[in-house]
């Protein structure tokens, strides 16, 4: 069951890329005492994620960051792939989170089995807003190729003015 409004973000340790390589980062450190937008994608460098989902957040990162402390992107990829994708997308304003073992993805109830396409467990396409670790909005796009409930424009509509 996917995480819902009013639920607390589970405390999970995942990876990000630091100056010396992959580093542990805990969700409690990301979310505690902050307003955070987290969007999850099925995979870095995939067409929908690279051509539609991520570019919207890149273009409007400044508008989002006027209203939140952190803008983060998560995928079931390793930290090196997430860093390469960040560079490719000019997404330096976005905290890239590598959930290589799908631990956070599963804890959020956002996993999907893409084994038929030889991609294993992946994340659903989603976006959420959390205030001090409590979800105030969550949007999940379930139709292939559609970025609607998880788009940057939808997120901006749900952030306080």
Describe it.
- This protein is of the alpha/beta class.
- The chain is 28% helix and 31% strand.
- It is built from six helices and nine strands; from the N terminus they run ββαβααβαβαββββα.
- The strands form three sheets. It has a five-stranded mixed sheet. The chain has a two-stranded antiparallel sheet with strand order 1-2. The protein has a two-stranded antiparallel sheet with strand order 6-7.
- The radius of gyration is 14 Å and the shape is globular.
- The relative contact order is 0.23.
Strand and helix map with partners:
Layout: E1 13-18, E2 21-26, H1 27-31, E3 35-41, H2 47-59, H3 61-65, E4 70-75, H4 79-88, E5 95-98, H5 103-107, E6 111-113, E7 121-123, E8 125-131, E9 134-141, H6 152-158
Parallel strand pairs: 3-4, 4-5
Antiparallel strand pairs: 1-2, 3-8, 6-7, 8-9
Shape: globular
Major pleated sheet: 5 strands, mixed
Number of strands: 9
User: What is the number of helical segments per DSSP (H or I, 4+ residues)?
Assistant: 6
The helix-and-strand class reads alpha/beta
Let me know the average pLDDT: 94
* N-to-C SSE string, H for helix and E for strand: EEHEHHEHEHEEEEH
Proportion in β-strands = 25-35%
Radius of gyration (CA) equals 14 Å
Low-confidence stretches: none
Summarize the structure in short:
The protein contains 6 helices and 9 strands; from the N terminus they run E-E-H-E-H-H-E-H-E-H-E-E-E-E-H. Strand 1 (about 15-20) and strand 2 (about 20-25) form a beta hairpin.
Provide key terms for this protein.
161 residues; two-stranded antiparallel sheet; 9 strands; 5-stranded mixed sheet; 31% strand
């Amino acid at each position: 069951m996917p995480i819902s409004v009013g639920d607390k973000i589970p405390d999970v340790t995942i990876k990000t890329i630091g100056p010396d390589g992959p580093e542990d980062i805990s969700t409690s450190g990301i979310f505690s005492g902050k307003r955070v937008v987290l969007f999850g994608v099925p995979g870095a460098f995939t067409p929908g994620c690279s051509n539609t989902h991520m570019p919207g957040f890149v273009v409007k990162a400044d508008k989002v960051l006027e209203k939140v402390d952190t803008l983060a992107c998560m995928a079931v990829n390793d930290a090196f792939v997430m860093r390469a994708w960040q560079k490719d997308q000019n997404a330096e304003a976005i905290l890239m989170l590598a959930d290589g073992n799908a631990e956070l993805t599963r804890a959020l109830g956002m996993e999907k089995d893409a084994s038929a396409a030889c991609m294993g467990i992946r994340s659903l396409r989603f976006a959420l807003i959390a205030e001090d670790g409590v979800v105030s909005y969550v949007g999940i796009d379930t139709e292939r190729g559609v970025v609607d409930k998880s788009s940057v424009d939808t997120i901006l509509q749900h952030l306080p003015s």
